[in-house]
Amino acid sequence: MTFTHLDGDGHARMVDVTHKQPTARIATAEAFVECSAEIVAALRDGSVPKGDVLAVARIAGIAAAKRTPDLLPLAHVIGVHGCTVDLTIADDGVAITATVSTADRTGVEMEALTSASVAALAVVDMVKGLDKATSIRDVRLLSKSGGKSGDWTRA
Predict the structure, then answer these.
(1) What is the pTM (predicted TM-score) of this model?
(2) CB of 14 within 8 A of CB of 69?
(3) Would 17 be classed as within a structural domain?
(4) Which residues are catalytic?
(5) Contact 104/123 with Cβ under 8 angstroms?
(6) Which of 10, 38, 55, 74 lies 20 to 30 Å (CA to CA) from residue 123?
C-alpha cells in the first residue's frame, strides 16, 4: 500500500501539485450547534449578551476558510475565491452550511469543513455564558465538485 502524504522513508510530506492544472472546485460542509431552548430564544430575539452571534460566526467561518493551511499542516495554500457561511436558527440549535470555491490545483473540502467547524465554535463561544452544555455535532462534508476525482454528494 502506498500513502500519498508519506515519502519513501515514511516521513510526512505535502503532495506536490505544481504540475496540476487549476480547475474550478467547490465544496460544501455543514455543522450543527445544539443549544438549549433558552439559547434558541435568545438567538431569535437578539438578546445574547455578547452580541450578534450569527454575524460573528459568519465572519469567523469565512476567516477560517482562508486560514486552513495554518491549521492543517499538509493542506495546500490555495486561493479561496469564494466563501459563504449560512446560519439558520432551528428549534434545537443553529444549522451551519459553508460553501467554499476556488480555481486552483487542489480541492477545498478541508476549507469548507474548517469554515463550518470554526463558525460552530464561534456560536459556542458567543453563547457559552448562557449554557455550558452547548455542543457541536454533525460536522461533515456534503458535496464537492471539480478536480480529478470529480463530483461527490453525500447520500
Answers:
(1) 0.92
(2) no
(3) no
(4) 125
(5) no
(6) 74
